[in-house]
Amino acid sequence: MTKSVGIDGCKSGWFFFQKEGEEITFGVEESISNLCDSLPDNSKVCIDIPIGLIDQGSAGRVCDVEARKLLGRAKASSVFPAPCRSVLQARNYEDAKALSVQAIGKKLSKQAYAITPKIREVDEFLRNRNRKVSIREVHPEVCFWALNGRSALVTKKKKSDGFEQRMALLERMFPNARNLVSEALDAYPRKSVARDDVLDALVALVVACAPGEALQTVPASPVADSEGLPMEIVFTEPTT
Predict the structure, then answer these.
(1) Considering the domain 1-80+131-240, what is its CATH architecture?
(2) How far is 180 from 50, CA to CA, in rounded Å?
(3) What tens digit of pLDDT does each residue of 67-78 get?
(4) DSSP tag of 212
(5) Which pLDDT belongs to residue 171?
(6) Which Pfam families match (predicted)?
(7) Which pLDDT does position 80 carry in this prediction?
(8) What does pTM read for this prediction?
(9) Considering only CA atoms, which of 75, 15, 68, 12 is closest in space to residue 204?
């Protein structure tokens, strides 16, 4: 039986929720290859990491630009520009900034640089492996925007009110969402898996579980990067 999987990066590697039949389980894998290689063929994976990178040009990825517009001014900053591909080879932050300026005329933010190792890991996996599973990019705040009637949640998920707002949306999709989140938080220390890592992986699972015809993308007609990887952000909306 195939599985649906929602993944977010965490300090220990990759935190995930997976659904097989009616059962939802969770765990942490050190590498994306170990995680994906363990899945049955044709499983559906949604991951909170940029997939598909530009090589040059100052405009950036269209999916990032359009996602910021969807979320509006109050939440646009949650979608930061993905780095260009050359930055993945940087030895340090100063090197990354220089490579970014050379390729796209802009410096790389520290936030983007911090997740460069995970972007590189996923990029190399997608480019160099015969993939037996479908792996698509999601952005948690775009997912919550869609689940909230196309209205961005301006609260911060690290705050209690923001956490509760997002939990309420997740409980509409998975009635046992609160128990799943609590069990995951009890299973791992915060130095390994943060609370928002768990929330983000679970909302990614919502998208992974949606049937193909219920999936939408930002932009509506994605383009591929120079390696053939689609530059898109996938989301789904409630059916009722």
Answers:
(1) 2-Layer Sandwich (3.30)
(2) 26
(3) 999 999 989 999
(4) G
(5) 98
(6) DUF429 (PF04250)
(7) 87
(8) 0.96
(9) 15
